[in-house]
Amino acid sequence: MTASRLVPVLVAVAAVPCLVSLPLRAVAKHASPVKIEDVVRVLKHKPDAKPADFTKVGQDVDSVLAELVGEPKADVELRRRAARALGSFGRRRATAVLTSAMSSTEVPEPVRAAAMVGLARARGESAFEDVKPYLRDGSAALRIGAAEALGTMGGDRARTLLGGAIETEESLEVRAAMEAALKAADR
Question: Which one of 1-10, 83-92, 132-141 scores highest in mean pLDDT?
């Protein structure tokens, strides 16, 4: 979905809150269509955008990112990128949106996995207990997200958990993500 097609959808949906995304929407402010379009443009050009990438967009970028994470009609890849970027802002509102997205079964798994990484960026090692159960989830995508989040937060507990999980993980793709997370945790 292009930015010009996404803006009217976001504006229209903002006027009628969906029950599915109510917890995410409850903490998000609504931004102008121009601001949304600017944030979308950055996300499309920067797969792993950081706050410095949004300097020309202005203030309240985290509000737009929160709105995108919770927007069920937005492109899943855009929502995933927004969740990862939101964690770099580290505000209370960002943490609430990311925690809600991560735990909601109504949110697509790639977005949930990215929300784990965002939460690890926002809270560091204090997100350990929130992320830990997902390392044993039935979904490979969520296990990969948990591994990446643990690698992002680092610390002895994350390394120990990853080291133990690698021994019993059946999926080659998940094991590779766990190995990469262990290397990231050691930095």
Answer: 132-141
Give me the domain span that covers residue 89: 1-105
Structure tokens at 154: 């680092």
Cα 182 from Cα 170, distance rounded (Å)? 17
Which of 105, 137, 169 is the endpoint of a domain?
105
* DSSP labels, 77-141: HHHHHHHHHHHTT--HHHHHHHHHHHH-TTS-HHHHHHHHHHHHHHHGGGGHHHHGGGGG-S-HH
Note whether 113 and 86 are same-domain residues.
no
Does residue 12 carry a pLDDT above 50? no
User: How many CB atoms sit inside 10 A of residue 70's CB?
Assistant: 29
Q: Quick check: pTM over 0.85?
A: no
